[in-house]
Amino acid sequence: MLCSGKGTTVLTLYRAQCLGCCWKQGMTIRWRSSVTLFRAEGSESEDVKPFADIPGPKGPPYFGTYFQYKLGGININKMPETLKQWHKQYGGIVKETLLGHTIVHVFDPEAIRIIYANEDKWPRIEPMAQTTQMYREKSGMSPGLGNTNDEEWYRLRSAVQQLMMRPKGVAPLLPAVDPVALEFVAHLKHLRDHSNQVPDFATELGRWSLESSGKNCFDTRLGYLSGEGQREAVDMVEASHTVFDLTTQLGVSLPLHKYFSTPKWNQLTKAEDVLYKTLQKQLTAALERLREKMDSGKLGENEFLFLRYLMSREELSVNDVATLTLSLFTDGLPTTTPQLLFLLYLLASNPTVQDRAYHEVSSVAPHHPAPLTAQSVSNMTYIRACIKESVRMMSMVNEISRITKKDMALGGYHIPAGTPVHLNNPALYRHPDFFEQPDTFLPERWLRDWSGEKPNPFILLPFGHGPRMCAGETAVL
Ligand code: HEM
Questions:
Q1: Can you name the residues that pair with 403 across neighbouring β-strands?
Q2: Which of 77, 112, 153, 333 could be bridged to 148 by S-S, CB 3.0 to 4.6 A?
Q3: What CA–CA distances, in Å, run from 131 to 79, 244, 246, 269, 427?
Q4: Residue positions in the annotated binding site?
Q5: 362, 365, 393, 391: which is closest to 378 by C-alpha?
Q6: Residue 325: CB within 6 Å of ligand 1?
């Protein structure tokens, strides 16, 4: 069976693997159980070029791009620009070696579609944060979702799937976080200076993120916005920045920290300690409150939903519960917080869009500040389009990692099983080949009645795709 989709010829495929083209063209596909082989359109298998021929930045054997990172040729803080440059210079499939580790950067939407289409139920990734994985191993902690693979990952993921990934799962959490948002708005009004600006707005957003997720995780108000927890909140925000920063730096450094306590490793350990010790303190107190409520028969139906759910899962150890709670508590800091900052910035600089967004909120939730409901949130289609468009304009994610499990041909090159690939969708987010008016903040392009060209569905995937996609996606959107 041959399926000819955009840019690719696909031989012997599973029905579920042909994600778009055949379905759209109304073609029938036979079910097959054989291994899938993909070929670049118009090429026979012998035309597929060897892995060694994939172009990319050059460097000395083993070290590869290392000296460019260290001597200034590549600025790690400006990776989005570097990736766009590599795409322009080398094409859709680019190979990079760094300290003996070779990865393939994928910029071709068809190749991205093929990689996702080939996933089984346990997609493999490189650890999201290798240093955090090391810290957790050394501290005897559970590694957490983003740092595991195979059976171990599946065990953890299936345990949280029901709670995190279904709208019904997160809807009961809405009444808990809505008052936090209202308090945050009041808090901002109070913080405005004489020029109507909020100093260090990013940290304020971080405090809001922690206060919100703290309510979900521990069923209490931590006082991170204006109460007695303010210092703790700022320490957490700073620690999260440090972890993020050093993880990035150590990712392009000689791995001395794996063998010695280097100054950067010590600094990172201290920051991880701040996060973990705060988690331990809050978790212990929450479990104590939960136990008291249960003992006194006063536990309400909607109280301690998150902890009760995790504690009820037999397959999770206490260590697993702690790491999963840490993830829910702090993952919003390097993700939701900057993304919300970008959204607010774009709304502030585009008053027409801001007006339309405001009118939607006013009409969908006219009784503000009456609590928002899951229904009213799901009716906010324009706000959702604004969120999507803000990710397209300013993304805090550079790539999504996968390790291929099968040999395949991508963009005309042979990619052996076991190759680490980076799906670099964000490098395409402002590419004129894929978006009209690429530099304009235009949420309308995501609305159903948009008459312009529909964006390719395999480009804007801010939360990833498939079984391994972001576990916080339903909570964010
Ligand atoms: C704007 C906010 C966010 C964005 C853009 C984002 C993006 C992502 C992306 C791209 C991935 C990798 C997906 C893949 O490999 O296919 C991911 C994974 C993950 N995210 Fe998020 N994320 C956000 C917020 C959150 C929040 C708030 C949480 C926690 C509540 C969270 C928890 C996770 C976890 C646990 C994983 C690992 C999933 C796994 O490996 O099974 N994320 N996220």
A1: 124, 420
A2: 153
A3: 19, 10, 9, 9, 25
A4: 470
A5: 365
A6: no
Query: What is the per-residue pLDDT for 169?
Result: 58
H/E element holding 169?
A: helix 167-170
The verdict on 32 and 98 lying in the same domain is yes
- Residue ranges at the known binding site for heme: 470
CATH number of domain containing 288? 1.10.630.10
In this structure, are 188 and 249 located in the same domain?
A: yes
Task: Tell me how far the alpha carbon of residue 289 lies from the centroid of ligand 1, in angstroms.
Answer: 29
* Ligand 1, atom 6: closest residue by C-alpha: 463
**Quick one: which atom of ligand 1 is closest to the CA of 461?**
10
Range of the domain at 344: 336-395+424-476
Ligand 1 center from residue 102 Cα (angstroms): 24
Distance 349 CA to ligand 1 centre (A): 27
Going by alpha carbons, the residue nearest to atom 10 of ligand 1 is 463
Instruction: Give per-residue pLDDT as tens, 135-147.
Output: 999 999 999 999 9
Distance CA 236, CA 244 (A): 12
Task: Answer yes or no: do 315 and 253 share one domain.
Answer: yes
End-to-end Cα, the chain, rounded Å:
38
Distance of CA 463 from the midpoint of ligand 1 (Å): 6
* Strand-by-strand arrangement of the 37-40 sheet: 2-5, 8-11, 37-40
In a domain, 51, yes or no: yes
Distance between CA 361 and CA 475 in Å, rounded? 19
For the segment 203-237, what is each residue's pLDDT rounded down to a tens digit? Answer: 999 999 999 999 999 999 999 998 899 999 999 99
Ligand 1 mutation target, pool 470, 474, 476, 477, most atoms within 8 A of CB: 470
Burial category of 458 from C-beta neighbours within 10 Å (exposed 0-12, middle 13-18, buried 19 and up)? buried
Q: Is residue 402 part of a domain?
A: no
Q: Are residues 354 and 460 in the same domain?
A: yes
The alpha carbon of 462 and the centre of ligand 1 are apart by a number of angstroms equal to 9
Residues 325 and 364 in one domain: no
Measuring from atom 21 of ligand 1, which residue has the nearest CA?
Answer: 470
